[in-house]
Structures are given as structure tokens and as C-alpha cells.
Design goal:
315 residues; alpha/beta; seven-stranded mixed sheet; six-stranded parallel sheet; 9 helices; 30% helix; globular
């Protein structure tokens, strides 16, 4: 059987990456829209309803409009925009967080793919809250760096232009008003009482991301050491295909002094590092902002909905 796939917005970074991941698969058939009709709602509705799976790689408003065009009860929608991520009628596309997340994906016709920063943040925060180590009202601060591909086509062109502004040569801090679009899903999906402080940087390399949360042990719900936290993460993600917890990096055991952000580019993998000391415990996730943070996660969710090995086309 070949599944019919429609990518609404395949000209964008995420859409192009999803398309690339399908190039070597023989179990799908891509159906495409004529270039001059790609914003025509009648033509889009026809293709969406003719598909088994439609990926929405669009701005939020356009994603909402496209989702509403679907009247075929058998068509499954996978939305890579921010539009539906905290909508309880949609499954949140991060199956490794908890078996309940995976079960909801399996039983849903509507899946919202997590944001890249949210993926890295929730991978840290959800287990901390669920385990009872972190109180829900903990004053979370998130630091993150991303390659410039995460900023979209306009920013990519800006970074790759000749004679570009010299400010692009350095890491650039943004989201200065603490209104980043990923904050609502981080709060809701991790079970926090308050939105975190979030400090993201876009940097002069193409793809890859690290997200870091620091813990003051004295503010936690129970007394734990850095190794206790590492053991909790190791158990939480044990047996998952794409999330791996690195060996314990506690005081005196650091195998290296740096965690580069770009080493998982073009994969759907995520690594978790626990380091620091027993007073100030640090947790970092490393992954591809275009992989587990976008297109890879979308394809993984599609594989789960198909009932096939979730790693198909991703390793």
C-alpha cells in the first residue's frame, strides 16, 4: 500500500526537509499542488481530502485555515505550526515524553508537532516535574542557542548574503520581551505554573541546537544530587529510539569541556547531558532544530500513525 501525502507549504524550510526525508521511501506517494494554485482554498481542499496524511508547514493563520478545509474523516493532519500545540483536541507530537503522549498520537487524526525550543525544554522539564524533583512553581530559566536555519527563509538569505551586517557574525540574543511563541506550550506541556524566563540566541551556523536549564538544588521539592537527577533521566528515557542520556558528567567526571550545538545535524536524535555539581545542577539537550525539532518529529509522528516502525526513514 502507498500512502498519499500532501505537504501544504513545502517551499518552507520544514516542508523541504520533510520532502527530503521521503525521497528514499517507496511506501508513499507525494501529491502536489500547481504553483499558481498553492493559495487557492478550493484546490488545497481537494488535495487535503484526497490525502492519507497532510503536513501543514505554514504560518499559524494559514495552518488553521487549511486544517478547517479537511472534511475527509480518514485524512490525518500533522501541523508543524504553533497554531494547535496547546489545543487539547490535538495530540502533542512528542511520544517520548510519556506513554500517554504516544497513546494520544496513535488514536488521533490531528497531531501538532512541537516547536524546536519547546522540544528541548520539555524533554528536560516534563520529567523533572513528573518525578517530583522540580516543583511546578519553580522559577525556570531556559538558555538556548540555535543555528540560523530555525529563523526561516528570510533569515537564511540574510545570513548567507554577501556583504551582510557584521552583527550576524556573532550570537544574537532575541525574544527580549519574553513573548516567544514556544512559551505557552513549554508551560502547558511541562506542567509548570508559570512561563519560564527564556533566553534564545540565533548563531552563525546553519543547523543544530542546545537548550539548557539550571537547577538550584536548595529550591527543589526533594533533596537530590546531580547523579540522582541523571539516574531519573536515564530511567525516564530508557528504551526510546531517538533520545539518549549521555554518561554522567558530574563533578570530576567530565569527558570533555564543551558541548557543541551542531553535532546532531541531519538526524532525528536528541541527547541529554547532566552536569554541574550537587548544588547547581545543569541539564542540556542537544538535537537538530530541523530534525527532532521539526521535520524529523513530524515524520516520526506519521510513522506512528501508520502503525509502522517509528524510525522508518529517520535513521
Amino acid at each position: 500500500m502507498k500512502y498519499k501525502i500532501f505537504i501544504d507549504g513545502k517551499e518552507g524550510t520544514t516542508g523541504l526537509k520533510i520532502f527530503e526525508r521521503f525521497e528514499k521511501r517507496n511506501d508513499i506517494e507525494i501529491i502536489t499542488i500547481d504553483e499558481d494554485k498553492r493559495k487557492d482554498p478550493v484546490e488545497k481542499a481537494k488535495l487535503i481530502n484526497a490525502s492519507d496524511f497532510t503536513f501543514l508547514c505554514l504560518p499559524d493563520a494559514a495552518a488553521i485555515e487549511s486544517a478547517e478545509l479537511c472534511t475527509n474523516p480518514d485524512t490525518k493532519i500533522i501541523d508543524a505550526s504553533t497554531a494547535h500545540r496547546i489545543n487539547p483536541q490535538w495530540a502533542y507530537g512528542f511520544p517520548e515524553l510519556d506513554k500517554s503522549f504516544r497513546e494520544k498520537i496513535i488514536n488521533s487524526h490531528r497531531v501538532a508537532v512541537p516547536g524546536c525550543y519547546a522540544s528541548g525544554s520539555n524533554a528536560i522539564l516534563y520529567p523533572l516535574v513528573k518525578s517530583g524533583i522540580m516543583p511546578k512553581d519553580y522559577p525556570v530559566v531556559i538558555h538556548a542557542v540555535s543555528g540560523y536555519s530555525g529563523a526561516g527563509k528570510k533569515a537564511i538569505a540574510q545570513y548567507e548574503a554577501e556583504g551582510r551586517d557584521s552583527g550576524l557574525d556573532s550570537p544574537r540574543l532575541y525574544a527580549l520581551t519574553q513573548q516567544h511563541k514556544h512559551l505557552p506550550e513549554i508551560k502547558v506541556m511541562s506542567g509548570l505554573d508559570f512561563e519560564p524566563i527564556f533566553n534564545p540566541y540565533v548563531c552563525d551556523y546553519f543547523q543544530g541546537m542546545t537548550v539548557t536549564v539550571g537547577l538550584h538544588a536548595r529550591l527543589l521539592s526533594k533533596k537530590v544530587t546531580a547523579k540522582d537527577v541523571w539516574e531519573m533521566f536515564s530511567k525516564h528515557y530508557e528504551g526510546t529510539n531517538f533520545i539518549k542520556v549521555a554518561g554522567f558528567m558530574g563533578e570530576g567526571t567530565l569527558p570533555e569541556q564543551f558541548i557543541p550545538a551542531n553535532t546532531l545535524a541531519n538526524t532525528n536524535e536528541m541527547q541529554i547531558f547532566v552536569y554541574g555539581n550537587d548544588d547547581r545542577i545543569m541539564i542540556t539537550t542537544r538535537f537538530d532544530n530541523l530534525g527532532k525539532g521539526a521535520s524529523g518529529a513530524a515524520v516520526q509522528c506519521m510513522n506512528i500513525l501508520m502503525g509502522i516502525d517509528e524510525t522508518t526513514g529517520l535513521i
